[in-house]
Input
Amino acid sequence: MTDAITADRWQFGFTIMFHYLFPVLTMGLGVLIATLKTIELAKGDARYGIAARFWAKVFAITFGAGVVTGIPMEFQFGTNWSRFSHFAGGVVGQTLFMEGVFAFFAESSFLGIFLLGEGRVSRGVHWFSSVMVALGAVLSGFFIVATDAWMQRPAGYQIVGGRAELTSLWALLSNEFALWQYQHVISGSMVTAAMVMAGIGAYYLLARRFEEIGRISVRVGVVAGLIFSLVSLFPTGSMNGENVARYQPVKMAAMEGLFRTEEGAPIAIIGMPDTVKRELMDPLYIPRALSYLAYGDFRAKVVGLNDYPEDLQPPVELVYYAYHIMVGLGTIFIAVMAIAAFLLWRGALDRSRWFLWILMLAIPFPYIANQAGWIVAEVGRQPWAVYGLQKTADAISPNVSAGMTTFTLLGFMGLYALVGLLYLYLFGRIINRGPADTSEGAHAAPVPAEVHR
Amino acid sequence: MINAIWFVVLSFMLTGYAVLDGFDLGVGALHLILGRNSDERQTAIAAIGPVWNGNEVWLLAAGGSMVVAFPHLYAAAFSGFYLALMLVLWLLILRGLGIEFRHQVEDPLWHHVWDLAFSVSSLLLAVLFGVAFGNVLRGVPLDADGNFQGSFALLLNPFSILCGVLSIATLSLHGAAYLAMKTTGDLQARARSVVRSFWLAVTVLLVAVAAASFVVQPGFTGNFSRMPLLLVVPLVGIAALVAIPLYAGRQQDGRVFFATSALIAGTLGSAAAGLFPKLLPALEGSRYPALDIYNTASPPGSQQIALVIYLIGMAIVIVYLSKIYRVWRGKIRPGEAYHV
Output
């Protein structure tokens, strides 16, 4: 890392990716916990309350890790990207600061009530606080995506004296790019939370521990997982893709590994981009599919990378693979969740131990898919920090050297390694202890014979 | 005009942060001294447990309002105070871990480690915020573009160190007042005695900082002589300072806490009133005038839209925050400590 720009990008990339491991779970899990609380209240079924309280423990440590790793994000705009702040602060400051005022205050204050205040407030207020926590988490996601969407496709601004001035808040918040990207992000977060819930529930059923909570978790997780893995593909994924094709065609070309401009361009299911020979190696194509998906016409012309100036192309390999990993995993999630939902519907999921294994082992993959999606969005935006307005290289702080950033990057790596280890340890501990309200003995009673098969 | 309103908003957000997270930091700084055993330390953390995170949001929201209203201040100050700010971020991470992870495992060694992390990070944060405050009052050497590079040699000057000491003393006083209000028994008795003993230290330090600030910033009194009404702000601080031992003598813990809050607000408010319209003064020999509310401002359209949003948003926030603080009013109840 000899130049400042490389060091700055590594630092931002590392800290944002590590941070996002936590909100990707809490946004979705907040909604699922509020759902459990609602079922408890509506049906008067105490088991759902126990499940909600159990998942709130997972939420609490995840939220804690998300908070401590989230604070550096906002401040890095000032420390390492001061020329970006200088140029775009008048616009992106708006959404960053709305996140604090409209989302963080609600989320953090009501979380205190939800986790610790059950003895001090009524049941209704406790339910309300779970809804506010979910709302705060999901809303904070919106402001961040709106910030990013402005960097992807600037809207509602004018340039005054070399800086961006906000002219319309509505245009900033209703940015066409933001709306689909946001729904796609939330959908991805819901899939993550649902698969974690279903996976841990499957573990309990496999281990024959806390089976009551295990069954509820599998049921809620599988239903939510099926819905949102479908929503991730259509409409949110495909509409987001159309936006990319419309506003960032060069990113689209990199995602698909399309080097030559073609009429009736194909989609490569697999294949390895060779950026020296400028072609895909060993590709497996679906003919004409890209033209149709991007422009709704099988013969539409899709411009390939070769027809863009070299200095305006994003790093092809990273964007290409990240996109294919995301789409590939997303497709597998749909298949897994569809089978799980079918087994659940037939009442056979509890007994299908082979499938419970799959659900349990699937837990890491939605994290990978979400991270890959963000790599497509952000690396694919390069070389721009703000699309068409400010290059990433012009966004960094002039008075912070590569050495300073490398030092703090190493500091973050060390500290986050600690955060990550502690989180995994505590996560495992919470899972191992299960819900405190059910004693292990009561549920380790003789197992019905058919479960043994 | 709108620039001036944003100056008030930013001062209000930073003061809100100092008053609210200030007692969290104070509780942390005193953590190893006041809590003599694991139960007492657990109680001390439980006293701030449900609110500390919301209090920290004031810092994020202050940062947000700085980006949107004075982006060049945000850019120059944060990149200029680079290493110091990174240190602050790392300490904030450690402190958060200490509060959130301590209670997760029932093990004496585990508790010790997080007690130490929580306490040391709170203590250093309190000092660092004071040092930052000192440097903002004193000014920094700005280059031709209004940027600077703040090495520790530059930032750690006698005046800022004095401010760091004042900060840790004041926030400890504030934290002790909070604990006296929220706890009972031995812990409360010790917190009360800290209030009494720290009060004198804070008074002496405050006089010293006030005197020294006239030396490092000779123009500091200008605003007050132009607008004598502003003198209300320091007078609030002085009244609060006088009130603390009176209330403490009568063991009116709630009022002591109110007074320490007013003391912090009065101190920071006086600094803001003296600085206006400057945001970051320039040291002698700088090639740029002070960063102020005009030359760091975002374009007027951005400031106007953001102000409307801010007023709506904070009105809602203050309504529900006051309701939530009412839920937590009164003493920590047994068994209410964080538990797994």
In short: The longest strand of chain A covers residues 267-274. Residues 4-261+303-452 of chain A form one domain.
